[in-house]
Amino acid sequence: MPLAKEEYISDAWKEGLFNNKVVFCTGGAGTICSAQVRALVHLGANACIIGRNVEKTESVAKDIATARPGAKVIGIGAVDVRKFEALQGAVDRCVRELGGIDFVIAGAAGNFLASINQLSVNAFKTVMDIDVMGSYNTLKATIPHLKESAQKHRVDSASLKPSPLGTGGRIIFVSATLHYRAAPFQTHVSVAKAGVDALSHSVAIEFGPLGVTSNIIAPGPIASTEGLDRLLPAPAMREYIKSQPLGRIGSIRDISDATVYLFSNTGSYVSGQTLVVDGASWRMSSQNTSSGQMGYPDFLLSGEAVQHVKGQKKSKI
Ligand code: COA
Description:
Layout: H1 5-8, E1 22-26, H2 31-42, E2 46-50, H3 54-64, E3 73-76, H4 84-98, E4 103-106, H5 121-152, E5 170-174, H6 187-207, E6 213-219, H7 226-231, H8 234-243, H9 252-263, E7 273-277, E8 290-291, E9 294-295, H10 298-302
Parallel strand pairs: 1-2, 1-4, 2-3, 4-5, 5-6, 6-7
Antiparallel strand pairs: 8-9
Bound molecules: coenzyme A.
């Protein structure tokens, strides 16, 4: 559904900021990543979004294209970030049809709630594969294009003036905050996101000399996302919102604005960093003590299993 501009981007940014730029985004049909891409498209970029579900990915791409008349947004479905060849094919098509890749958002992720007792070896591996291997595959498939773009858009090292062509050669990994402390029922995601964070830091130092920047956006609780809906059913949500340091949860616009900041000239000297966009939520020590109806530690001690979570199978291992 087309969104009003104020829903996905603030009015702080200059129209045309990303003219002639191309963004490649995995997980681009999801609530957060589609908003990030929509903001960049609104500001002039063309885009390629990747997803597993063909129909959803193609229809979200069409919808994002409504953010700017003349925008080109390609939706490539049936691409699993765990499969390098499929991802490489999508990158090749993006470059062929849109002319290159200036920005990458590695956003594809897998998540569900499960205690370690419920989490099979394969379930743990599945999330590691989607998050860690998927991010690495995304990096490997896109880095030649990021290097090329970085070369064209370097800040002059003597005068420190930005390139007149704008910015390019930047990657953002979408991570989380739950591994900063620890969160029950999220072991798999915590371990995976810690790996994604380490990957981003390494990219920053290995490709920095070539002008590439690498950063992490760690969203806090964001309204209308699958993740938050899964964690907090409606009645618990009201209490949760009240408990937040800013008295609210985040919007997709909060994440889009952080993305524009990192990809435009405002982020030129920011690399190897994590931009936590959570209204100080993770610093509240009480946040990890319960997940909706599942009070900690009572739920774990009860021996019950987390119910009604998409994708759950019966593996005992
Ligand atoms: N609790 C415990 N184990 C679970 C689970 C749950 N809620 N959901 C999946 N698993 C396990 C499966 O049982 C399976 O392990 P097994 O072979 O030992 O039984 C393993 O994870 C792989 O599951 P499968 O459904 O085959 O994997 P997939 O690759 O098709 O999908 C996900 C993996 C994570 C994408 C899927 O679980 C899912 O759809 N999650 C919700 C959507 C999502 O993650 N969106 C991203 C929001 S951040």
